[in-house]
Each structure stands twice: as structure tokens, then as C-alpha cells.
């Protein structure tokens, strides 16, 4: 059975493989493992577990100098991974700060997206929107939803969920006097009379 071992040069960190035509040859090589060549494992998952364990047992252990070099490689790799993690966190912080800054420069009277479900009520559709849902926006959204409730009542349905774009404060001229600019809804079967709706 042909075998391939994953190896690493402890002096350079270079990775590679060593191939053998038979398990016996691999066993002999492992017992006399060349100095500063670390065996990381099998290069293929197709090797039977028993064979893998037998080869591991045959391998000459690292000597003190080799173990020191391995520890240095592991420490360097760990430091690199930790740096990547720190860089990612810092990048996410910068992106969040930039988004917050952009949000602060947006028109406070701009349209707001509102999501509503009959069992959970009303929430902002955009979690990054720092504005509160105004009473005017809430009332306009509920009036829009109630109107759709009437549309589907004869079919023994209710509005199960809705998404509405509404102006929460001052109405711009472009709004044409309408606080709700657009909306979509999904009907569902009406709940039993004893079930509470928000």
C-alpha cells in the first residue's frame, strides 16, 4: 500500500510530503527519521486507523533541539493567528464607527422601514437605524396594516406580517401628504378567537 506522510522542515518551516511504496519502508524511515524533519501526519485520510497508529508508534521522537524549533514554529503561528484576529476586530470596529458616522449625517426625517408581525408587534426594519419609531410612524403603519386586515377578513385571514416604509417625522413635499410611502404584507389564517394579537 502506497503511503504519503506530511512533513515539515523544522529549520525552514517548509512543508512537504514523503512517499513510500510499502508500509514497511515507511516504518523503517520513521524509526530513523531524518533530523529536523517533523512528521505532521498522513497525507491521506484513506489510510486505515490501525496503520496510522502503528506508524505513529514507530516514529523517532523529537530530540531537545528539534522540540525547541517546533515550539518556536507553533508560537510564531499562534502569534500570526492572534494578529489576524486582532486585525479583524479592529477592522470591524472601524467599519462600525464609519457606519455610525454616516448614520449621524443622515436626514433624521428620512423614511424609516418598519417590520410588523401579528405575534411580535412592530420593530425597525434596519437594526442600524438609531431613531426610535415615532408615535406618528407607529400610528400610520398600524392604520395601513388595519386596512389590509379588512381586505382579507372575508377569507378568514389576517395580516401575518408586513413591511412598511414610513416617514417618522416631518413629511417632505415629495411624500404627497402620505406618511406611508410603500408596504408589503403576507396574509395568514386568522387565529382562534382566544389567541391574542399585538
Number of beta-strand segments: 7
Give, in spatial order, the strands making up the sheet with the most strands: 5-4-6-7
Q: Structural class of the helix and strand makeup? A: alpha+beta
Biggest sheet details = 4 strands, antiparallel
Q: Name the helix and strand elements from N-terminus to C-terminus, one letter apiece.
A: EEHEHHEEHEE
Low-confidence stretches: none
* Straight-line distance between termini: 69 Å
**What does the average pLDDT come to?**
89
Rg measurement, Å: 33 Å
Regarding quaternary structure, what we see is single chain
Helix content: 25-40%
Give the number of helices: 4
Large-scale geometry: elongated
Strand content: 15-25%
Topology:
Layout: E1 3-9, E2 15-20, H1 23-31, E3 37-42, H2 49-58, H3 64-104, E4 112-117, E5 121-124, H4 135-153, E6 157-166, E7 180-189
Antiparallel strand pairs: 1-2, 1-3, 4-5, 4-6, 6-7
Helix pairs in contact: 1-2
Amino acid at each position: 500500500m502506497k503511503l504519503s506522510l506530511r512533513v515539515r522542515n523544522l529549520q525552514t518551516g517548509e512543508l512537504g510530503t514523503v512517499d513510500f511504496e510499502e508500509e514497511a519502508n515507511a516504518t523503517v524511515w520513521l524509526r530513523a527519521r531524518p533530523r529536523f524533519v517533523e512528521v505532521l501526519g498522513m497525507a491521506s485520510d484513506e489510510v486505515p486507523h490501525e496503520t496510522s497508529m502503528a506508524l505513529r508508534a514507530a516514529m523517532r521522537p523529537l530530540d531537545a533541539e528539534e522540540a525547541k524549533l517546533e515550539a518556536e514554529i507553533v508560537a510564531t503561528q499562534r502569534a500570526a493567528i492572534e494578529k489576524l484576529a486582532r486585525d479583524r476586530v479592529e477592522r470591524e470596529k472601524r467599519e462600525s464607527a464609519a457606519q455610525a458616522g454616516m448614520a449621524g449625517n443622515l436626514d433624521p426625517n428620512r423614511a424609516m422601514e418598519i417590520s410588523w408581525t401579528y405575534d411580535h408587534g412592530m420593530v425597525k426594519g434596519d437594526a442600524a437605524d438609531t431613531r426610535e419609531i415615532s408615535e406618528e410612524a407607529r400610528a400610520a403603519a398600524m392604520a395601513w396594516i388595519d386596512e389590509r386586515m379588512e381586505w382579507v377578513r372575508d377569507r378568514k385571514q389576517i395580516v401575518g406580517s408586513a413591511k412598511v416604509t414610513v416617514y417618522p417625522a416631518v413629511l417632505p413635499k415629495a411624500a404627497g401628504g402620505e406618511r406611508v410611502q410603500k408596504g408589503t404584507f403576507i396574509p395568514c389564517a386568522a387565529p382562534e378567537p382566544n389567541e391574542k394579537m399585538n
